[in-house]
Every structure is written in C-alpha cells, then in structure tokens.
Design brief:
about 325 residues; alpha+beta; Jelly Rolls; Phage tail protein beta-alpha-beta fold; 3 domains; 13-stranded mixed β-sheet; 3-stranded mixed β-sheet; 7 helices; Ferrdict_sens_TM; FecR; Membrane protein; FecR_N
C-alpha cells in the first residue's frame, strides 16, 4: 500500500473517491459496455478532482488482482443514472557517528534496504523474536528491521513499521548499550522497554521501562523516561506526554479504543488490512470504546456497523469505506 501515498488522501474528497472506486469496478468488468465507457469519460472530464481520485484508485489497484466479475454487479447498479518533520554529548556522538546516523537523510538510506531486512512482518502479522543476548523484539504489522551484534553495542535498524524492544532480560555479560537507528535519528538504551513507530514522515517513541536517549539527526538529544511518549522528526522532538493505554495493546493482538475518534480508529485499523480503508469525514468524529481483535478486521468492521450509525461499503474487494448509514 505504500505506492498509494503518492496521491495524498487529503487532496481527494471522500465522496469523489467513492465514485472513482465504483467506476473502476464497472470498467473492470468483462462485459463493460460502450455506453458505460462513454459515461465514465464524461464523469472523468467533469472535474480535476475526478481525475485525481481516478489516479489514486489506479495506483492502489496495481497492488491487487483483477476482481472477479461476479463481485461487480453492486457497483454497476450504484452508478446507473449518475454523472457523477545537532548537537550531541561526546559520548553519544561516538556511538551514533560510528553507526552512520549523521549521514542519513529522513528517507534515502532506508527505502531499498527494507526489502532485504532480516526481520520482517507482513501486513496484519505480529511476530516475536528472541535475540542471542536475551533481548526481545515484537514486530507489529508491516515492519522491517535489521539486527547486528557489534563489539560495543547491539545495533538495530528500523526501516519501516513498529517494534517493541525489551532489553531488561539481557544476558549478564551483555553490558554494552543498545542503539536503534531510524530515518529521523537514533535511540540509545540499556535495560529498558520501549516501542518505536515509523509513521512515514515522523517517528513515535514510547518508553515503558527505564529510559531512552533520543538523538534526532539534526537536533540535541533528549532523555525520555518511563511513562512518556514523544513524536520526533530529524530536527525536532515534541513535548513528552503520558503514555496512552492503547500503546502496547497491539502486542496482544488488540486494538484498544477509549473514547477514540472513529477516524483515528479507522486509520489504525487500516495498518492491519491490505487494500484501501477510509472513513467519511462526516462520521469521523463518532467515538469508539472497546477492545477489538486485530486478527479479524472484517469482524471489527461488522461490529462498527452494528454499534454505530454507519454503513460499510465494498465496491471492490480491496476497497472498503465507512460512511453514514442511510436514513
């Protein structure tokens, strides 16, 4: 789904995106008619937003197979009649410079290495790894990273995704520090437990035990203590906040919502599904409470439809949207 971000979702109106997905379903049918092609051409020419939405749907479609013709009937019916974001102490500099962090930009060094990473998870997969020194890794969905034991450090590199690192049970002879590199900076830790999430344009650090020294590529280092979480870019760190209860629920395969906006909930759920999942801004401020199983996202969507005034639409097998339930 990374390619889909080439066309930012914020630039496309939700309703127009829905129309584009419906048209894509119709035009993918083996028995599409000349009249339907002509109607689509008229729709496409009506607005630059239509063209932008169509481009986004096409980009997403490249990741998936052609849909079976038997699943397109509903979309055709729906369309009929419509025209529609340095400084360092000397000790930390010595560790991080040797890892090469100052030479990395926010994206260039990581883009291709993820494909060859030693530790990976697929979309929707959560996996545990025990390292030779006794450290423990839990990789969240769609994550890629490398690990190497060097003479003076345990060196981790996170290319994408999210990982929970636990170094509290390391072997007694493993007194050297743990260094984790990201596209935006590096983390230095010893006996600690923390998670780091690469959100694509920003990093998110949550410290559950001990403390972590966070050093952005182009900014002063800051120590983040247990019970705190921050977001950071290559040149800035946000003010520390108290940990949200949900930050470690994914380790147990649960998406925890405590008065969470539906829009934020859907964004989080989308990480565990292949294909497009979006929420109409008109219902994005509805509130969610509960614990939801990440291994069965279809079940989660069904629960949303039963408990909220929303409707789940699937004009394509890989395109799912949540909108207001018709009156």
């Amino acid at each position: 789904m990374q390619a889909a971000t080439q066309v930012p979702e914020a630039e496309c109106d939700f309703a127009v995106l829905e129309q584009a997905a419906e048209w894509f379903a119709v035009l993918s049918a083996d028995d599409v008619s000349d009249q339907e092609r002509a109607q689509w051409q008229l729709w496409l020419a009506e607005s630059s937003q239509h063209a932008l939405a169509w481009q986004r749907v096409e980009i997403i479609s490249h990741h998936f197979q052609r849909i079976p013709s038997g699943q397109r009937h509903g979309a055709r019916q729906a369309l009929q009649g419509k025209g529609q974001t340095r400084r360092q102490t000397l000790k930390l500099m010595t560790l991080l410079c040797s890892a090469g962090v100052l030479a990395w930009s926010a994206s260039s060094a990581f883009s291709w290495k993820q494909w060859y990473a030693s530790y990976q998870t697929r979309v929707g997969e959560i996996k545990d790894f025990q390292l030779a020194d006794g450290s423990h890794l839990c990789l969240n969905t769609d994550t890629a990273m490398d690990v190497s034991n060097e003479p003076d450090r345990l060196h981790l590199v996170l290319y994408k995704g999210e990982v929970l690192v636990s170094s509290t049970d390391r072997n007694k002879d493993s007194s050297y520090p743990l260094v984790l590199d990201t596209a935006y900076g590096a983390l230095l830790a010893r006996d600690t437990q923390f998670s780091i999430y690469d959100r694509g344009s920003i990093g998110e650090l949550t410290v559950f035990k001990g403390s972590v020294q966070l050093a952005p590529v182009a900014s002063a280092s800051v120590t983040i203590k247990a019970g705190q979480q921050v977001r950071f870019t290559a040149d800035a760190i946000s003010a520390a906040q108290a940990i949200e209860q949900r930050r470690k629920a994914w380790v147990k395969g649960t998406l925890l919502a405590d008065n969470m906006r539906l829009g934020d909930f859907v964004d989080e759920l989308a990480r565990y599904r292949t294909g497009h999942l979006a929420c109409d801004p008109k219902v994005a401020d509805l509130r969610i409470v509960g614990a939801y199983p990440l291994k069965d996202t279809d079940r989660v969507l069904a629960a949303l439809e039963q408990s909220l005034p929303v409707s789940i639409r699937r004009p394509l097998p890989w395109w799912t949207s949540i909108s207001a339930r018709p009156a």
